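Budget justification note: compute hours in this period were largely spent on complex prediction jobs such as the one shown. Inputs:
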Amino acid sequence: MRTRDVARGIGIVAVAAIVVLAATVAGGLLLSSPTNVGEAPTPDAYDTGSLDASPIASDGDVTAPDGESKTVVVDVSHGNDVSEDAIQPFVDALVESGHEVRFYGGASNTGIGAPTQSGSPFNETLRSADALVVVSPAATYDDDEAAGVEAFADAGGRVLLAADPPTTTTSDQPISIPGLDTGGSVSAAGQPTNLAGQFDVTFGNGYLYDMADNANNFQRVYASGDGGLADGVEDAILGGAVPLRTGPDASVALSVSDATLSSTRETGSYAVVARTGNVLAVGDTDVLTSGMATTGDNDAFASNLAAFLVTGDKQPGEPSNGGTDGQQPTGSGAMIGSAASAGSAGIVPAAD
Amino acid sequence: MVETPFGDNDTASARGVVQATTLVLLVVGLIVGVALAPQAWSYATQPDGNVAVVEIQGSITGETASGVVENLREARQNDSIEAVVLDVDSPGGTAAASEQLYLAVKRTAAEMPVVTSVTGTAASGSYYAAIPSEQIYVTPASVVGSVGVRATVPASGPVEGEVVTGPDKNSGSTEAEVYERVETLRRAFVGAVFAERGDRIDLTREEVSHAKVYSGAAGVENGLADEVGGVDTAVAAAADEAGLDDYRVTRMDAPQPSLLSQIGLSAEEAPDQPTTEQVFDYRGVDTVQYLMLHGTIRTTETETEVTANANA
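Corresponding output:
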């Protein structure tokens, strides 16, 4: 009897415990509210198929026409913001086609007593050249040099003037010595204003952009034109291009439509490449660089530029003002040509 | 006749016992009632719910974004929280963290009213976080906008004394790919702005993509913001949206990144004005940083320039 009573007591306790636990679980399941209800809303903006930017085709080669070997001088003597490395595809194309590319870094003898009676060494260099490339000079071309370039172009020499919006940057010069600071601590990528002005072209200020139709960035705008230098160029891609204003003697070769100028915020069609006789002004230097030269139709445009430079017919010995006829360049320029490897040619720093 | 076992005296005695027992039970009942009265009072006077004020302040990094996402999750899971007010004062931060905030706010807004109060700046990444809210309250001097993306690209090229297994191991991508990715992020950002607020914005996608910042007053005009009002107005609006007549406000503070992790340097080297790279970069390596950040990037060059100008 005693054992039965104990068993009954234990049974009652067990049943009661089970009932309480079952009621708790059931109550919890029934009454608790789920903490993470529903699915996360789908962000509509992330679903569109047009989200991924399309890569811009970057193929093709920059080429230059074969034929009579021409000498192309790239001026780096005016603090020009250009190097052989920067315009490698352009230089390579010219060299491959048998032309000669020289980087003119300025006269080697610029000290006191340097011969001045023979005129500007820059003009001397032009005498033996067929084409001149001037990119973003920091220093102004003096009157003598400007006259030399004009005479050079009049004699059939081809001139390419290229520039970006002017910039001012501080140099890496760590120490400035009081009294010896000649203002060289600030360098600028400028524009060949006085050279271009002689040929009815001026470079503008600010850059062109297009928020709607661009090559994956508002500053990378599409330029197009008709025939000539725009031959085969449907969409040249310029990066941060500067607009050109042209006079009556100049003709627009490439322009950007529906672009906005950063400085005025005015939208319209802007000329970016203009030609005046033997002189070509380009409002962008990126098209010559290895990063951009094959993007879009830039390879066709850069090839047209190379062809423009080496298809002139320049009278030898011009410009004749200053210097000795027939004298070879006395500048400390590096020569890149069929006899020299383009890849190993050194770059001469710009002379002050 | 049967005689009852108790006489009259016994009957009176039994009645007395009953009365005493009743009295004792009454007293016990009163005591129990008094003991439970505070709970009853509390129940009767408790607010209908809480409005949580979640701070999004300072630069948005992965660390700070995680804290805000955690706060928003807490707001969703806590039954007493019926509405959320975002207290935004941030110039933005990394693109990935800003997108995390956007998604977390969007999810919260799907479950309860979310209202934003711009107490300073809601630009770039922090504006991204605010756009799923039902309303954005600004003050005339607060700043909204800067819908845009930028990438800071470290100098590429092989590092001397380093061997890598692929051409892009250093930089991670080519320059063209960086342009593509920035453009993709811009499209997602601008697309999200128009998906959330397209019915209220009076600007075109191109105009929004200019990445201007607007004053609060201008933002109300062009639809980037909704109304002028302070944080209390935003709280009241959120409570109203949630149907709360009687509510309590709970503030969830913005997580502050530790200074050490913020600049990735030891305390001895901590500069007063860390560069942007130091704030957002990983320790020890330079990577392409995709930022939704308003303002001019602070670099060592700009530091040098400022110093040079000060000396001039």
